[in-house]
């Protein structure tokens, strides 16, 4: 594990050398970082990390994005996620897997009251419709590993929430 300064990511190129696979789950919130900070973390840092990984020999890059990601969206969150998906694909990995989970179910250290309320509601909904609106972070992690062990066809593979659930069970 290497600790890097994302504001000076280029100075840490050695940390990205010699890896066959790269996993990226980097992200923040607009509330925590402001609009500019959100774009810097969720798009710029991720794109730069992907470029460094590719330059370091990475063949397969696995990116956690978001359901609804769309570079043309009017919503900042979805637009930035769509933009970073396009940037990562353009890096030219032999294989790129993009996971688009719905609401992530997890325990957080910081307090996010509205997110907690929605997670409680979605936790109940998930009992009836387990793959519709949410996914546990553990399932996403298992799916990320599984997609490397059994890569899909083609250069770019996009896994939506239902596919993440299926792959995360394997």
Structural descriptors:
single chain, 170 residues, alpha/beta, Rossmann fold, two-stranded parallel sheet, 5 helices, globular
Please describe what this structure looks like.
The structure is a single chain. The protein starts with 20 loop residues before the first strand and ends with a helix. The protein has a four-stranded parallel beta sheet with strand order 1-2-3-6, with helices on both faces. It is built from five helices and six strands. The longest helix has 26 residues, at 30-55. It has helices at residues 30-55, 76-90, 113-128, 137-149, 161-169; strands at residues 21-24, 60-64, 95-100, 103-105, 134-136, 156-160. The model has no long low-confidence stretch (mean pLDDT 90). It is α/β, with parallel strands linked by helices and 170 residues long. The chain has one domain (16-169): 3-Layer(aba) Sandwich (Rossmann fold), CATH 3.40.50.720. Residues 4-151 form the NAD(P)-binding domain. Pfam families: NAD_binding_10. GO terms for molecular function: catalytic activity.
């Amino acid at each position: 594990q290497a600790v890097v300064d994302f504001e000076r990511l280029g100075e840490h190129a050695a940390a990205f050398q010699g890896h066959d696979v790269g996993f990226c789950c980097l992200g923040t919130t607009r509330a925590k970082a402001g609009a500019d900070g959100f774009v810097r973390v969720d798009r710029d840092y991720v794109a730069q990390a992907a470029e460094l990984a590719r330059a370091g020999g990475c063949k397969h890059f696995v990116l956690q994005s978001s359901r609804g990601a769309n570079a043309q969206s009017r919503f900042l969150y979805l637009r930035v996620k769509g933009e970073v998906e396009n940037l990562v694909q353009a890096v030219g990995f032999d294989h790129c897997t993009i996971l688009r989970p719905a609401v992530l179910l997890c325990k957080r250290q910081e307090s996010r009251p509205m997110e907690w309320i929605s997670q409680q509601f979605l936790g109940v909904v998930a009992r009836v419709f387990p793959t519709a609106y949410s996914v546990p972070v553990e399932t996403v992690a298992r799916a990320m590993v599984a997609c490397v062990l059994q890569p899909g066809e083609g250069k770019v593979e996009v896994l939506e929430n239902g596919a993440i659930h299926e792959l995360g069970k394997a």
